[in-house]
Specification:
With about 270 residues, this protein is an alpha+beta fold. Helix content is about 45%, strand content about 20%. It is built from 9 helices and 9 strands. The strands form 2 sheets. The chain has a 6-stranded antiparallel β-sheet, sandwiched between helices. Strands 1-3-2 form a 3-stranded antiparallel β-sheet. The longest helix is centred in the C-terminal third of the chain and has 22 residues. The protein starts with 20 loop residues before the first helix and ends with a helix.
């Protein structure tokens, strides 16, 4: 998961009288913990959350008292109770429960990994994942993992579903596009054309733009009223699956799975 940005000074000032700054500080402190920062000192949390030491001390003390964190006097760690916050979202949408069983069935059929994600700002966030024993990426992905939307097949499906004005604003805000591989689209006009193609055909294939060797195909998941609420993808390695096989064999199976998930969460 991507860490909260490090910044100095206090947390963001309250925009209005209903804003609870202490809650914002608590959430900022929780977001500083990740795989690279599983155990942190008070100073670490204060610096990475943009809090004073006094504010960070109060926040961490509260998290420990409520069972969301542990501290040994020097280092603080999150406790499993924090998972309740994320799973409240997953179970509240109904997507996780509806998607997981058909995703497992798909993986057993095609022997490739399958994931589901939603759009959050400029990133996609993984909300369900069924991996295979064959690793296809150098990083480990799990629930809550984030990746840049424009660099992923699921992200392009979700971006293609946005109203044109919102899509234009998001693409303009990206600024300079950094290449991840020699195949990464770094031209804004080329990226815009690629997303338009996804909108027209209803699916996206990315060939080694995010990471060498990684190929993926994604399709939308629809909710009540037909709105796109998530995306489903299959990730493969270029050494095992050709682009023709990805499109001819795996895409239809993925579309069938996504249709089933869509019906399960209320799409007509």
């Amino acid at each position: 998961m991507r860490a909260a940005p490090e910044r100095g000074g206090e947390a963001v000032a309250a925009p209005d009288g209903d804003f609870v700054q202490s809650l914002a500080r608590g959430l900022a402190a929780i977001r500083t913990f990740d795989a690279e920062h599983a155990a942190q000192t008070l100073s670490d949390v204060a610096r990475r959350a943009g809090l004073s030491r006094a504010a960070a001390r109060r926040v961490l003390h509260t998290l420990v008292e409520l069972g969301y964190a542990d501290g040994d006097g020097r280092l603080f760690r999150l406790r499993p109770k924090v998972l309740e916050l994320g799973f409240a979202y997953l179970h509240g949408t109904g997507l996780w429960g509806a998607a997981q069983p058909p995703m497992v069935e798909l993986v057993e059929r095609i022997h490739e990994s399958c994931s589901a994600a939603v759009l959050d700002g400029d990133d996609i966030v993984y909300v369900a994942r069924v991996p295979t024993r064959m690793r296809i990426m150098s990083i480990t992905l799990g629930l809550g993992s984030r990746l840049p939307a424009h660099l992923t097949s699921m992200g392009r499906v979700l971006l293609a579903a946005l109203p044109p004005a919102e899509l234009d604003a998001r693409l303009a805000a990206l600024g300079g596009l950094e290449p991840r591989t020699e195949r990464t689209l770094v031209d804004a006009h080329a990226l815009r054309r690629a997303i338009a193609k996804v909108r027209a055909q209803g699916w996206a294939i990315l060939d080694q733009e995010l990471e060498p060797g990684l190929r993926s195909v994604a399709v939308p998941v629809h909710g009540p009223g037909g709105a796109v609420v998530a995306a489903l993808n299959v990730g493969t390695h270029a050494s095992r699956v050709t682009l023709e096989d990805l499109k001819g064999r795996i895409l239809p199976a993925l579309q069938e799975t996504a249709a089933g998930v869509s019906r399960a969460i209320g799409a007509s």
